[in-house]
Amino acid sequence: MKYLVGFSRIFVGVLFIISGLIKLNDPVGFSFKLEEYFSQGVLDLPFFEPYALTIAIVVVIIEVLLGVMLLIGYKPKFTVWSLLIMIVFFTFLTFYSAYFNKVTDCGCFGDAVKLTPWESFSKDIILLVLILVLVAGSKFIKSIFRNATGAVVMVLSLLGCIIFCYHVLNHLPVKDFRPYKIGVNIEEGMLVPEDAPKALYEYAWRFKVDGEDKIVVTNGDYPSVEGDFIDVETTEIQKGYEPPIHDFAIEKDGEDFTSIYLAEERLVAVIAYDLAKSNSETFHKVKEVTDEAIRRGYKVIGMSASGEDRSNEFIEEYGLNFEFYFTDETTLKTIVRSNPALLVIEKGTILQKVHYNDLDELNLKEPKNGIYFNLDLKKSLDSVMVLDQKYRANWTPDNWSKQIEIDSSNLDYVEKIMKEHGYPGKSMVGEKTASAAWYVIQHSDKIDVYIDEIKQAADNGELPFRLYAMMLDRHLMYNDKAQIYGTQGSSYFIGSPKEINFIWPIQNPDSVNILRKGVFGTTVEEYGKDLFGDDFEFKNITIEEALKIKNSVN
After folding, report:
1. Angle at 141 between CA 138 and CA 146, to 5 degrees
2. Nearest 5°: CA angle at 47, between 172 and 115?
3. What long-range pairs does 111-120 form, CB within 8 A, spacing at least 24?
4. ω before 340 within 30° of 0 (cis)?
5. CB pairs under 8 A, 24+ apart, for 48-52?
6. Are 326 and 251 in contact (CB under 8 A)?
7. How many other CB atoms are there within 10 angstroms of residue 12's CB atom?
8. 423 touches 471 (CB < 8 A)
9. Buried-state track 497-522, b at ≥16 Cβ within 10 A, e below 16
10. pLDDT of residue 451
């Protein structure tokens, strides 16, 4: 008996300490698991949910201390009876979870070791037996220290637990056992290997044959039975391979942006699983840090399970310069134990995770080519873009007069910007705003002045090449020359209500669609119909014919 008690003492003590420390490393994660147990449909104790974190901390510290007390033999009777009470409760909990299939993972070892409900119950049964041995043989548990020394060891253990818990709560877990740890590539984590085991199902088909029920069991094929089919019961007999990451998505307005953002070379993601529960005071710092990330050429997005209205309130209240996308709340809780938190991601690989208390530690690369993103300039050019289109969609003589005034003012502003900064392209103001200055110049009489600068911006990837192609065509047309890409059409009234529409002459009409395919993705014939209507038939006319029409109207 003495040796059995000795073995049980070491095994139970070590296991309780390891289990407790793993959970103490991530008390927030354990609190999420307790919330799951407390929720309706499981234990139906929702009034405990607000206190889940406090309960989690108390439980895991007690678990560690009981393990230490057992190993050093401090107050053995109190220790073994406390262990018995705890394991009886946990055994009931895991049995309830397993039998009724309520919680798929008990969280006994956090994310370090995943156990199925029945595995958890089996583990608790073994511990229950060993702890009963300790209760029966408690007289063999001797203290290895004097009472005073034992008390000091326990006080130090308690202080150690409190300090460790305080650290991980105000920063992040010291050891990350989750599938989203630093260094993991999210896309690779979602892949299923070709040789991965497939799920196997057993189908119990029920038929009515000669007035009696007949059940035929197959692994999927519909059985050949002469009778009336009633129903089928499906049972999973072997689980298939489930990738470590299987629930990650970035969505907005029903559209999936996951692959787009995981392809970003520089991405900062602001994680806030529930904005209503976020530490809102830190969003002033979040804005400061994310603005700097944007200036350095990072794409910044928010990821939250909160609704669009709540997200927009945060954007407006804190002046955030990024949009929020929807991601499942459980997924966000798994990614990082901070609300909010920041992630740095490079082509799908997580490079850094930062708690909201450690935002100053965010490590950002210097901007490419030494060009810092200019947020103030971006906002100004976004306003210019709105003004550029203000009256163009609703043409009237009065509106056109107003638009001419706006265009003149916009051109003055853009010329000042280009004189000071060069073309304000993607690196400076972002991909969406990079076309603002182009539109202003395209709608001006200064194309000749800036066409070379526009070409350089396109060659450097600061502006989509198709925009340069359109401006080049307009430049050639304004100089009475044939265009290259067939992007410019002309409409002339030659007597009310008669109108003549044509595509301005093209230098190489036979090969223009080859050029267009790589730049615009449509043929000149399709473009003509988009421009002038389905009845339009493309015919390449000569420069002489085009000028004759133009001069006859003028």
Report:
1. 130
2. 50
3. 111/26, 111/29, 111/177, 111/178, 112/22, 112/175, 112/177, 113/22, 120/94
4. yes
5. none
6. yes
7. 24
8. no
9. eeeeebbbbbeebeebbebbeebbee
10. 97
Locate tokens 């004097």: which residue?
146
Tokens of residue 62, six digits:
């007690």
Nearest to 314 by CA among 283, 339, 270: 283
pLDDT digits (tens, 9 = 90+) for 3-43: 888 889 999 999 999 999 999 999 999 898 888 888 887 78
506 membership: H or E segment, kind and range = none
Burial-class residue 189 by CB neighbours within 10 Å (0-12, 13-18, 19+).
Answer: middle
What is the residue type of 37? Y
DSSP string, 6-27: HHHHHHHHHHHHHHHHHHHT-H
For strands 489-493 and 255-256, give the pairing: unpaired
Q: Is 95 exposed, middle or buried (0-12, 13-18, 19+ CB in 10 A)?
A: middle
| Total residue count of the chain as it appears in this document | 554
Confidence of residue 97 (pLDDT cuts 50, 70, 90): confident
> By percentage, how much of the chain surpasses pLDDT 70?
97
Spatial separation of the C-alpha atoms in residues 245 and 189, rounded to whole Å: 5
CA dist., res. 492 & res. 156, Å (int): 91
Give the 3-state secondary structure of residue 519. helix
Residue 6's nearest CA partner among 137, 129, 123, 125 is: 137
**Cα(111)–Cα(26) distance, rounded to whole angstroms?**
9
Per-chain mean pLDDT for the chain? 90
Instruction: Write the burial class of residue 355 (CB in 10 Å: 0-12 exposed, 13-18 middle, 19+ buried).
Output: buried
Tell me, what's the pLDDT at 554?
A: 59
**CB under 8 Å to 265, separation ≥6 — which residues?**
346, 347
Per-residue pLDDT reduced to its tens digit, 478-532: 999 999 999 999 987 765 556 789 999 999 999 999 999 989 999 999 999 999 9
Task: Say which residue the tokens 């583990």 belong to.
Answer: 123
Residue 199 has a CB neighbour count (10 Å cut-off) of: 11
| DSSP three-state, residue 444 | coil
Contact predicate 204/217, CB 8 Å: yes
Q: How far is CA 253 from CA 325, 327, 384, in A?
A: 9, 12, 27
Q: Residues 27, 168: contact at Cβ < 8 Å?
A: yes
pTM: 0.77
What tokens were used for 269? 């993601």
Please, what sign has the CA dihedral across residues 466, 468, 474, 476?
A: negative
For the chain, the straight-line distance linking the first and the last C-alpha, in angstroms and rounded, comes to: 113
Sign, Cα dihedral of 482, 487, 493, 498:
positive
